[in-house]
RNA sequence: GGUCCGGUAGCUCAGUUGGAUAGAGCAUCAGCCUUCUAAGCUGAGGGUCAUUGGUUCGAAUCCAAUCCGGAUCACCA
C-alpha cells in the first residue's frame, strides 16, 4: 500500500478513536504531499472536521498529531501550520522501502486481473503515408496499451485499416493515368509515399479540371461533380464494389505497396499490433444488427426505406443507419466492427478507440446506439479522444501537401540529435554504429515525448520551423539523467539491477538528507502514478512524473557525491536511490516506447 | 443555432476527488565545471488563472451567465 493511503487510514482510525461520537467519512480525509517550504512529508487537511467537531484547527491538529506520533510507527513528528497537519515520516520507512524494492524490476506492476481490453490505434487510410498527426495517435495508443498491461489487463492492440473507398480510388486513377507503371522498385520510392504522391497528383489534376470547367461557364458546384477525373474515381469505386478483377488486382497491388511502407514506418516508430482489421472485410458488417434493431423497435424505417435511430431524447439528432437503397454508411459498419471485435476476443472489458476529437460525436452516437440495442459490446466502448496536431497556419492537409511527414520527421530528429551530440563534443568512446543507434534513441525519444507530454485531449500546435527541443522538459533530459546514473554504476562495477543481497549490510544510522528523501518520496509514488495513467487514460502523467524524478535526481547529483560519499552507509543508501531511480525511469519510459541509453 | 471540448507567465504546458504564498520548461538576466557526464545545477524577473456573479472555512478547480477559439451536427468517410 502507498504511504499516502497508509496515512489516510491511520488518520481515519485516529479520528474515530479520538472522537468516537463524530461521523468521520473517509472521503473527508485529504492527504497531500507537504509543500516544500514547510517541514514535513505528508499533510492532513484539518478544515473538513472543525465544524462537526466544534474545534479549532490547531487544537484538532494537536490532538491528531499527538495521537498519530504516539500510536503509529510511521511518524516521528508533526507541525501544524494554519489548519494543516504536516507529518514527518520516519527515515527508516524510506530506508526499508529502498532495501525492499531497489532491484524490483516490476515495481508498480499489478497482477493480472483477467480482464481483456482492446486498444485500437493508428487506423490509417491507405492513400497516403503517415504524418505528424498519426504519430500522436500511434504513440498514444501504444503507450496506453502498455500502461494498461502493467495495470493487469490483457491487452489486444488492434489496427483497423481503411483500405477501401473513394480515397484509394483517387490514388489509383491518378496512378493509372500518369504513372506509366511506376512501382516502388522502379522508382526507389517507399510504397506509401508513392501512392500518396498520386493522391496529391489526383487533387492537382482535379483542381485543374474544375477550373477549366468553370472557365467554360459551368457552375462551380457542378464542375466539382463533373470533373472527369472525379467521375473516373467514382466509376473505379463502383467497379471495385462489383468485384471487377482488374480493378481489384490494382487495388491489391497499390495497397500492398502502402502496407510495405507502413510496416517500415511502424517498425521505426517501435510499435506493433496483435490484430489487423481491414475495412474491405468489415464494411458490409452491421446490417444484421440494424435488422435486429428494427425488430426490437429501437430503430425505425422512413417511407423511402432508409433506416434511422432517433436520439433526440438524448439531446442528439436522428442518425441514418441504412440508406434508402439499403447500402450501409460508416456508422453501420462501425456498429458491426464493434460487435466483431467483442466476439473475436470472447468478450471485452473495454474496447478503447484512439481517435481524434473530430469524431467525438460519432463515437458518442456509436456507443449510444449499441447500448440502446442492448449489445454486450456497448458499455466497454471508450473513446480515447485526442486533439489534432496543427501547424501555425492551421490544420495539416494532405491534399495540399502541407503535412509534416512521419518518415521525414524521424530523419530530421535523428540528424538533430547527431548535430547536437557533435556540438557538445560527446562522441568520444563510441563506435559509428553505437553513435547511429544513439542518435535514433535521442531523436525518437524527443519526438515521442514531445507528442506524449501534453494531455491527450488538448490540441497541439507544432511549428516545424522551431525544431523540437532537446533541453528542458524533454526525453533527452531524462535520458541524460539515466546515462549519468549508469556512468556511476559502471565506475562502481555495479549492474543496472544489482542482486538482492547487494546492500545486505546496509543499516540506517544517520539522518536522510532532504535531497535523498525527495528522491525516495518520488520513487514511492510511482505505482500510484502508473495507476492514474490507466484510470485517466493519460500517458502524459508518466511524462510529468519522469521529468520531475529526473530533475530531482539532477539536484541530488549536484548536491551529493555517490562514489565519494561521506561514508559507506551514505554510499549504499545513495546507490540504492540511483539504482532505483534509473530502474523506474527505464520502466516508465519504456511504457511510452522511449529507450534510455546507458551512455550519451 | 444545438451539443461537446478548450482559454493558466512573452511562448509551450503542469496543477491528482475544492486546500497553504498558482508551478515547470523555453526565452531573458546573474552565478556554478582541478571533484561521479555542464544535454546539468543554483538564483532573479515575469500572473486580473478569459470576464462577472454564486456555492463555503477555503475556488484555477464546483455551479450559472457572458466573451473568445476549436470540433461536430450529411442518404461523406
What do you see in this structure?
The chain is an alpha/beta fold. The protein folds into 3 domains: 3-89, Arginyl tRNA synthetase N-terminal domain (Gyrase A, domain 2, 2-Layer Sandwich); 116-288 and 329-400, 3-Layer(aba) Sandwich (Rossmann fold); 407-591, Isoleucyl-tRNA Synthetase, Domain 1, CATH 1.10.730. It contains 22 helices and 15 strands. The model has no long low-confidence stretch (mean pLDDT 94). It binds one RNA strand of 77 nucleotides through helix 2, helix 15, strand 15, helix 18 and helix 20.
| Most strands sheet | 5 strands, parallel
CATH fold label of the largest domain: Rossmann fold
Strand content: 5-15%
- In DSSP terms (H or I, runs of 4 or more residues), the helix count works out at 22
Q: How many strands appear in the DSSP assignment?
A: 15
Which descriptor suits the 3D outline?
A: globular
Gyration radius from CA atoms, angstroms: 29 Å
Helix content: 40-55%
Q: Quickly name the level 1 CATH class of the largest domain.
A: Alpha Beta
The tally of structural domains comes to 3
- The largest beta-sheet arranges its strands as 7-6-5-11-12
Q: Quaternary arrangement of the chains shown?
A: single chain
Distance between the termini: 36 Å
- Poorly predicted runs: none
Mean pLDDT: 94
CATH architecture of the largest domain: 3-Layer(aba) Sandwich
Let me know the CATH homologous superfamily of the largest domain.
Answer: HUPs
Structural class: alpha/beta
Amino acid at each position: 500500500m502507498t504511504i499516502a493511503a497508509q496515512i489516510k487510514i491511520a488518520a481515519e482510525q485516529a479520528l474515530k478513536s479520538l472522537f468516537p461520537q463524530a461521523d468521520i467519512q473517509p472521503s473527508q480525509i485529504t492527504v497531500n504531499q507537504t509543500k516544500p517550504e514547510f517541514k514535513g512529508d505528508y499533510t492532513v487537511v484539518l478544515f473538513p472536521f472543525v465544524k462537526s467537531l466544534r474545534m479549532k484547527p490547531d487544537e484538532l491538529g494537536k490532538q491528531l498529531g499527538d495521537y498519530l506520533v504516539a500510536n503509529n510507527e510511521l511518524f516521528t513528528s508533526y507541525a501544524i501550520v494554519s489548519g494543516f497537519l504536516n507529518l514527518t515520516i520516519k527515515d527508516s520507512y524510506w530506508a526499508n522501502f529502498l532495501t525492499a524494492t531497489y532491484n524490483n524490476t516490476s515495481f508498480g506492476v499489478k497482477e493480472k486481473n483477467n480482464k481483456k481490453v482492446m486498444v485500437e490505434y493508428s487506423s490509417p487510410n491507405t492513400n497516403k503515408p503517415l504524418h505528424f498527426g498519426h504519430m500522436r495517435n500511434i504513440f498514444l495508443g501504444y503507450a496506453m496499451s502498455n500502461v494498461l498491461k502493467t495495470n493487469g489487463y490483457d491487452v489486444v492492440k488492434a489496427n483497423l485499416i481503411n483500405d477501401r473507398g473513394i480515397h484509394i480510388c483517387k490514388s489509383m486513377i491518378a496512378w493509372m493515368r500518369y504513372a506509366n507503371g511506376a512501382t516502388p522498385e522502379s522508382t526507389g520510392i517507399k510504397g506509401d509515399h508513392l501512392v500518396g504522391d498520386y493522391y496529391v497528383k489526383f487533387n492537382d489534376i482535379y483542381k485543374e479540371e474544375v477550373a477549366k470547367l468553370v472557365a467554360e461557364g459551368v457552375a462551380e458546384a457542378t464542375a466539382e461533380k463533373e470533373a472527369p477525373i472525379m467521375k473516373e474515381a467514382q466509376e473505379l469505386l463502383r467497379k471495385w464494389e462489383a468485384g471487377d478483377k482488374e480493378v481489384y488486382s490494382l487495388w491489391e497491388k497499390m495497397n500492398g505497396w502502402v502496407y510495405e511502407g507502413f510496416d517500415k514506418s511502424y517498425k521505426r516508430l517501435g510499435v506493433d499490433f496483435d490484430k489487423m482489421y481491414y475495412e474491405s472485410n468489415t464494411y458490409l458488417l452491421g446490417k444484421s444488427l440494424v435488422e435486429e434493431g428494427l425488430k426490437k423497435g429501437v430503430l425505425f424505417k422512413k417511407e423511402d426505406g432508409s433506416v434511422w435511430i432517433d436520439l433526440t431524447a438524448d439531446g442528439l439528432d436522428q442518425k441514418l443507419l441504412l440508406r434508402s437503397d439499403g447500402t450501409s454508411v460508416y456508422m453501420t459498419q462501425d456498429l458491426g466492427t464493434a460487435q466483431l471485435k467483442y466476439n473475436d476476443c470472447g468478450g471485452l472489458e473495454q474496447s478503447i478507440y484512439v481517435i481524434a476529437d473530430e469524431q467525438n460525436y460519432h463515437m458518442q452516437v456509436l456507443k449510444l446506439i449499441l447500448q440502446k440495442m442492448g449489445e454486450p459490446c456497448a458499455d466497454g466502448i471508450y473513446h480515447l479522444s485526442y486533439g489534432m496536431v496543427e501547424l501555425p497556419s492551421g490544420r495539416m492537409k494532405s491534399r495540399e501537401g502541407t503535412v509534416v511527414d512521419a518518415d521525414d520527421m524521424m530523419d530530421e530528429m535523428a540528424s538533430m540529435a547527431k548535430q547536437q551530440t557533435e556540438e557538445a563534443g560527446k562522441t568520444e568512446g563510441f563506435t559509428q554504429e553505437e553513435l547511429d543507434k544513439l542518435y535514433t534513441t535521442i531523436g525518437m525519444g524527443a519526438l515521442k515525448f514531445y507528442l506524449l507530454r501534453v494531455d491527450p485531449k488538448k490540441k497541439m500546435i507544432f511549428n516545424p520551423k522551431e525544431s523540437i527541443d532537446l533541453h528542458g522538459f524533454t526525453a533527452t533530459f531524462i535520458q541524460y539523467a539515466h546515462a549519468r546514473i549508469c556512468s556511476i554504476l559502471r565506475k562502481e562495477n555495479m549492474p543496472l539491477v544489482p542482486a538482492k543481497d547487494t546492500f545486505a549490510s546496509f543499516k540506517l544510522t544517520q539522518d536522510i538528507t532532504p535531497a535523498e528523501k525527495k528522491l525516495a518520496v518520488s520513487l514511492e509514488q510511482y505505482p500510484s502514478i502508473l495507476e492514474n495513467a490507466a484510470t485517466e487514460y493519460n500517458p502524459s502523467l508518466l511524462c510529468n512524473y519522469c521529468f520531475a524524478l529526473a530533475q530531482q535526481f539532477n539536484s541530488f547529483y549536484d548536491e551529493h557525491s555517490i562514489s565519494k560519499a561521506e561514508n559507506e552507509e551514505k554510499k549504499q543508501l545513495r546507490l540504492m536511490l540511483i539504482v532505483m531511480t534509473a530502474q523506474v525511469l527505464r520502466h516508465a519510459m519504456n511504457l511510452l516506447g522511449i529507450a534510455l541509453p546507458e551512455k550519451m
